[in-house]
Amino acid sequence: MSTSTKALNRLGWWDRVSPASKDPITGVTEAFLADTNPHKINLGVGAYRDDEGKPVVLQCVRNAEAKIAGCDFMESNATAVGSKLVEESVKLAYGKDANVVKEGTLAGLQALSGTGACRLFAEFQRRFHPESPIYFPDPTWPNHPNIWRDAQVPVRTFQYYHPVSKGLNFAALMDDIKNAPDASFFLLHPCAHNPTGVDPTAEQWREISYQFKVKSHFPFFDVAYQGFASGDLDMDAQAIRIFLEDGHLIGCAQSFAKNMGLYGHRVGCLSVLCADAKQAVAVKSQLQQIARAMYSNPPIHGLLLVSTILSDPETKALWVKEVKVMANRIQQMRSTLRESLEKLASPLNWEHITKQVGMFCFSGLTADQVDRLVREFHIYLTRDGRMSMAGVTTSNVSYLANAIHEVTRYN
Ligand code: KET
Questions:
Q1: Atom 22 (ligand 1) nearest CA
Q2: Which segments constitute the Aminotransferase class I/classII large domain (predicted)?
Q3: Lowest-pLDDT range, 100-109, 237-246, 327-336, 385-394?
Q4: Active-site positions?
Q5: pLDDT band, very low/low/confident/very high, at 259 (cuts 50, 70, 90)
């Protein structure tokens, strides 16, 4: 449009803007909130809920709040708190005794939760490797392609899930790693893969790591659910530790939205493992520059909460316990849902409900079946059949099982 046409039509600036498509996950929450049926269930967003279906404020968070109450943080510079957060977060990912934690070879920055950490890295990747694509598992969290696409990074996929076995398609995954151009970026979910709940075994991670070395690929780990797969924070970081042992440089996005129940506070960490301390200083300064232009600093309250929880041994021990409680409740709901469906004499095999791990069950329900669950039973989930098991409770599990049975029994 020429300037003169613009001048003629002063209300025409946004005429070409049509509505964006709804986000598949936040769209489910909106539909759930608008429903007034008392039996409604939200299995959409992957955020933890207690056995009453309510969001949880962990006791460790309450304790941390008490510790920081009244502290003079409203206007202070977030840098010192951010460094503490980074120092503690990288111990969670790479291991508290890992040499890289002490050697100063990690370039780490506090980030706006997991999404912000991914976005920062995507921008950094484009700045220094503009031609390199990033490979995502198929399927992956639907926001991954959005994030990297918005950063102008070419986006590709590698095979991951096997729909028939509802498990890992390991052979196809290895083929795609081998066939990708050398020195490609790969996004890996180190535990509790979203949306499938399917993780490689330690042995398979070793093979993946070996092949990454052969191909000089760069592993970028998106750690959004540490603790939810096994209930144990270290166990859930085993993939990262295996890659570390194998001598890779690694990128890592960590989120405290789910495992600390701090979704609304947007606390996360981005770390990039570098070849030496000098390189780490350079990489960190570039990341800081990108963040400075995008949003300057993250809000400080959530940072203080997380750094307090992670650096105070008593509060940290309480958090470790609470993570286990959350993981166990989800595990319990997996067993109960599967048993309930089996008791109803469902003609389908529901083994995968207990075989898959973490927040999600990739149920195998078709989009039409999901639509029926929404329409007839007020049960909300994404149309790919992903169920957030955190939304299942002792009191809604039999209603849920009946509804699933109803929409699947004649298929
Ligand atoms: N990575 C993965 C794999 C992931 O599932 C999420 C969120 C994020 C990063 C982002 O996390 P955050 O720290 O909130 O920025 N997933 C859930 C929530 C959402 O989509 O916002 C979900 O899949 O439901």
A1: 46
A2: 39-404
A3: 100-109
A4: 141, 222, 258
A5: very high
Mutation choice for ligand 1 from 115, 187, 266, 295, CB with most ligand atoms inside 8 A: 115
Beta bridge partners of 138: 159
- In which element (H, E) is residue 374 found? helix 367-377
**88 CA from centroid of ligand 1 (Å):** 21
Q: Residue 212 — very low, low, confident or very high, per pLDDT cuts 50/70/90?
A: very high
Residue ranges around ligand 1 (CB below 6 Å) = 25, 45-46, 113-115, 141, 143, 189, 194, 222, 224, 255, 257, 263, 268
**Distance separating the N- and C-terminal Cα atoms of the chain:** 54
Give the residue whose CA is nearest to atom 20 of ligand 1.
25
Whether residue 254 contacts residue 117, with contact meaning beta carbons closer than 8 Å, is answered with yes
Q: For residue 224, report the distance from its CA to the centre of ligand 1, in Å.
A: 6
Q: Which two tokens stand for residue 25?
A: 């996950």
Q: What is the DSSP string of 175-238?
A: HHHHHSPSS-EEEE--SS-TTT-----HHHHHHHHHHHHHHT-EEEEEES-TTTTTS-TTGGGH
- Cβ distance 271 to 251 under 8 Å? yes
Distance 247 CA to ligand 1 centre (A): 28
Residue closest via CA to ligand 1's atom 17 equals 46
Task: Find out whether 253 and 220 touch, Cβ atoms under 8 Å.
Answer: yes
Predicted confidence at residue 74, as pLDDT, reads: 65
Burial 212-242 (b: 16+ CB within 10 A, else e): beebebbbbbbbbbbbbbbbbbeebbbbbbb
Is the Cβ–Cβ distance between 109 and 124 less than 8 Å?
no
Token pair for 293: 């232009």
Closest by Cα among 199, 118, 216, 132 to 160: 199
Bridge pairing between strands 134-138 and 155-159: parallel
At 69, the pLDDT band (50, 70, 90 cuts) reads confident
